[in-house]
Amino acid sequence: MAFxxxxxxxxxxxxxVAVTTLAQQLKAAGRDVIGLGAGEPxxxxxxxxxxxxxxxxxEGRTKYTAPDGMPELKEAVCAKFRxxxxxxxxxxxxxxxxxxxxxxxxxxxxxxNPGDEVVIPAPFWVSYPDIVRLCGxxxxxxxxxxxxxxxxxxxxxxxxxxxxxxxxIFNSPSNPTxxxxxxxxxxxLTQVLLRHPHVHVxxxxxxxxxxxxxxxxxxxxxxxxxxxxxxxxxxxVSKTYAMxxxxxxYAGGPVDLIAAMRKIQSQSxxxxxxxxxxxxxxALNGKQDFLEENRAIFVRRRxxxxxxxxxxxxxxxxxxxxxxxxxxxxxxxxxxxxxxxTLIADDEAFARALLEETGVAVVFGAAFGLSPCFRVxxxxxxxxLTEACARIRRFCSGLS
Length: 400
What we know:
There is one protein chain. This protein is α/β, with parallel strands linked by helices. The protein folds into two domains: 6-44 and 290-397, Aspartate Aminotransferase, domain 1 (Alpha-Beta Complex), CATH 3.90.1150; 63-285, 3-Layer(aba) Sandwich (Aspartate Aminotransferase, domain 2), CATH 3.40.640. The protein has helices at 15-28, 47-58, 71-85, 100-111, 127-134, 154-160, 183-194, 220-223, 255-266, 274-285, 290-310, 347-358, 382-397; strands spanning 34-35, 94-97, 117-122, 138-143, 165-171, 200-204, 231-236, 249-252, 325-326, 360-361, 363-364, 374-377. Strands 2-8-7-6-5-3-4 form a seven-stranded mixed sheet, with helices on both faces. The protein has a three-stranded antiparallel sheet with strand order 9-12-11. Helix 4 (100-111) packs across helix 9 (255-266), helix 6 packs parallel to helix 7 (183-194) and helix 11 (290-310) packs parallel to helix 13 (382-397). The protein starts with 14 loop residues before the first helix and ends with a helix.
């Protein structure tokens, strides 16, 4: 009898975490490495949020809370959904977890049975398919194209739905492409979903407040209220408030689903860190004026990276509408050899050779389900991005 569970054979470690870890190891070994793989802002958590955590410690608010979030945080989440998304939830419709990933995991673990299908557009956040598989479901990957802005069409969604489909995972703005769906594009998808009442929607809105050039964010349950009873709207404080390490994610959804998720969390982590919860209350309820400044910085960095990469022969880098990633194609570089003799057979070989020969760490496109591309996180300083792009240009210039 094998000791390890058979379900582990269905999943693989996170490629983005692996790239970041390798870059850190190379740095520790003395290599000059620029890591562009991490999906987190380089800003400090705002001062007023940090002070809320300090007050919680000083005032002894460090005990257990309800498994899926204390009342004050659930009220703050309800207020956020009303303020930002025109979504009306009650506290019993809110789940707070140790990061958005746990909330997603709880939802899928609570609902998936063997054979249940989950439709996932590609490119996708690397964890979606593996969490589906770990929970016993089948990931149905639907490719998009750069020509279509990396956005799923209504026709493609319709074609992917079967009687076994239980969930459709929707992410806008997207990790890894930064693609953001307009109100009308979401409307087209929701019209398909209305025709298939057995399909539930998991909308991952974690990059909601990181949109650019006047883009207006919308979420499926907001666009089509008739889907409210079968939509889980997922969000968190990690990206918007530079709180990745605080580990607070949350979601609003149907009461029965939230109760099932609560049951799972009560037997796994129980409540998220109480101190982090109080910090999240301040994040959601407190001043938001710094968001515009952060967005301006990200726009500047985005434009810097897009301009530099798109000017490299063989690379095609579209302009993203949100998040803090670019997802350029390297179709024009496939089949060539690096200066050190490495054959660029695919985007994984490209990323490996780029790291080994120049010290720039990016994530290869196959990890996100669509090749030949690579992902760059521009959530780092202008100087770092300028140097990284210069190294990528030199590397590509040396291909033969």
